[in-house]
Amino acid sequence: QLKSDLDKHDGNLEYILTGEGAGSFFVINEYNGKIYVIQKLDREKKPFYTLRAQAINRSTRLPVEPESEFIIKVRDVNDNEPQFLDGPYVATVPEMSPEGTSVTQVTATDADDPSYGNSARLLYSLIQGQPYFSVEPKTGVIRMASQMDRETKDQYLVIIQAKDMLGQPGAFSATATVTINLSDINDNPPKFEQRLYYMSVSEEAPVGTSVGKVFAEDSDIGDNAAMNYFIEEDSSDVFDIITNNETQEGIILLKKQVDYESKRRYSIQVKAVNRYIDERFLKEGPFEDTTIVKINVEDADDPPVFTSENYVMEIIEGGVTGALVGVVTARDPDADNSPVRYSIVHSMHLKRLFSINEHNGAIITTEPLDREIASWHNLTVTATETKNPEKISEANVYVQVLDVNDNAPEFPKNYETFVCENAASGQQIQSISAVDQDDSAEGHHFYFSLAQEDANSSHFTVKDNQDNTAGIFTRISGFRRQEQVFFYLPILIQDNGTPPLTSTNTLTVTVCDCDTEVNTFYCRYGAFMYSLGLSTEALVAVLACILILLVFFLAIVAIRQQQKKQPPFSEKMEEFRENIVSYDDEGGGEEDTEAFDISALRTRTVMRTHKPRKKVASEIQSLYRQSLQVGPDSTIFRQFISEKLEEANTDPSVPPYDSLQTYAFEGTGSLAGSLSSLGSNTSDMDQSYDYLADWGPHFKQLAGMYSSHRTVGD
């Protein structure tokens, strides 16, 4: 209630209320100043109202006191329920977490006034989730109440309740659902499903063949279940194992080829170990497991086996056909010991020098061998089971051809030996050596001498240097080229083989016209001329004739080339163009004799207009349409066109190419328009031709034919 100090309770004062909510939520008794609320108030919407009050004189309507301002606060009552705005909740916590581990926190809100009373003071409690979880009453923090194993249960549903008024009777409440998932940790070792595995592998299986699979189960998931497999206690090192990272299986592979006849059964121990180990759980035991794998080798039909993969044999060259080189042996390793058939793999491009006995493997020659042609021969021998021809094995046979002294020594090259005419006696003119295709174990040693029949009469002597070389010396002084140009010396060369072989090699000595030094070119030239029987003057004459003929031939070729370069026309080639002459002029009718000068068409001098080739097609089409309507005196036009065409054909100043000249004389823009009825879509009966009478005397007859008002006698 508001009351003025000047209020005498005589009803002379009037109280007025203004401000927030005045008239809508609050009213004032104008006589005593009491304020009343006329609607229900909601503190959560507006917690206070600011109002102004004034007392005025009813008679004068003037204020008796200054206006006063006051605030009306809305006192809170517990009329709102708590709310979980972020629910439902999902949380994750590692399995086997210790008691008291924080999982997550839930928070509820209450719209009531937290500063007045207990309307907004909340209390949290656990409705569902015992005995695994607990919640702090004031904070809403959910904690682990015991250790839990994910492999037993991996998800829990917890219900949290929030009450206002600190849980007192009459309090409002709300609930929230919390889904708690247990994440995995590596707390379980791998365990093999079987303590003993049985597998088998064929002895024909190649290296890398999968023998079988083993699997150790791990209750954990993800990386915690990842494991590696190892093979233990396998001294033979025949098998290997790899891990399939997708299925976590161990795949046993064949590392070496097995042989049923050598070993028929293997026993290996396989171990599975976790790849990632949590040290917190090592005290519970090793995170690994072992199992036994027994592998049986299955028998298969094996190919024959040679006693050696590579054979080395020797044979002397030059032996008779059918000489024994050696013997290869192969057998069937299987129990039935099938007979074996031998053969040689021959190349299509090589000569067949060997054959083999298919029953006993004896290799013989088919013709004598020459070491100087080939000192080694490589053969491939196959052994095939007679009962199963698909079973084939191979062996390499290397045949060395041993040398015998069957080749005499000889000159390594053709020597060119020259001697001057004035050479003195005892002068060395050549040094010679020898080569031998045979192979000497002690090294080659050659002996040089002059043939006995020529030793006394020869003009030259041979001196053996005892180092596989010899010198050729002159025996006399002075040689006459005119008497003899060439001397042929028979040189005997003997090797140190068993038995020794001797060969006779001819050394040609050419006499040269020189003093001290031999001009090799001039000497060869002189010898060549001497052999032809020509003198120097004759040879010069022959060469001069050849030179003259060559110059004459080159001159003819040059003249012909010059003629080919000259152009076929004396004048420059004109550019290819169509010549189009177009005349467009509008006539004034039959009586118009001044609009167009017809004499211009009769002149022989017409200017040709050259237009680009790209516009010719469209212009020809336009001219063709115009040429269909030829005006009066068309005979003159045809005569003019014929003259122009003849002029173009006989013009000597242009190349003889086709020329297109089009002439059309049709005016455009006539007011009469087209008289054709081809484009009309109506019949003659539907059209009116009365307008023809207005076209003048030239159309009088036509107007009479089509006019609708015809007179008798028209």
From TrEMBL:
Cadherin domain sequence ranges: 4-84, 85-192, 193-306, 307-411, 411-521
Pfam families: CADH_Y-type_LIR, Cadherin
CDD domains: Cadherin_repeat
Cellular localization per UniProt: Cell membrane
Stored SMART domains: CA
Keyword annotations of the record: Calcium, Cell adhesion, Cell membrane, Cleavage on pair of basic residues, Glycoprotein, Membrane, Metal-binding, Repeat, Signal, Transmembrane, Transmembrane helix
Stored InterPro entries: Cadherin (IPR039808), Cadherin-like_dom (IPR002126), Cadherin-like_sf (IPR015919), Cadherin_CS (IPR020894), Cadherin_Y-type_LIR (IPR000233), Catenin-bd_sf (IPR027397)
GO molecular function, one term: beta-catenin binding
PANTHER family associated with the record: CADHERIN-19, CADHERIN-23
Function: Cadherins are calcium-dependent cell adhesion proteins.
Protein name, UniProt field: CAD19 protein
Protein's organism: Sylvietta virens (Green crombec)
